[in-house]
Write a structure and sequence with these properties.
Elements lengths: L1 H6 L18 H12 L18
C-alpha cells in the first residue's frame, strides 16, 4: 500500500525502519530505565494502552 501511495501525489513517510541522527534526550533515557526497573518490558496491548484510550 505504501509503495502504491508513493507513486501517487500523496506525501508518504516510511516509519518502518531507521536510525535517528540525534541522541535520545536524557529525560527519555531516564524514563526508559525507570520503566524497565518497574517491570514494563513487554509490548503494549495491540488495541493500545488503556490509560491513553479515549472513552
Amino acid at each position: 500500500m505504501a509503495r502504491e501511495l508513493a507513486k501517487s501525489d500523496k506525501d508518504v513517510i516510511n516509519l518502518a525502519v531507521g536510525e535517528p541522527d540525534f541522541p535520545t534526550p536524557e529525560n527519555i533515557r531516564l524514563a526508559a530505565i525507570c520503566a524497565i526497573n518497574e517491570g514494563f518490558t513487554k509490548y503494549t496491548p495491540a488495541e493500545g494502552c488503556p490509560n491513553f484510550l479515549k472513552p
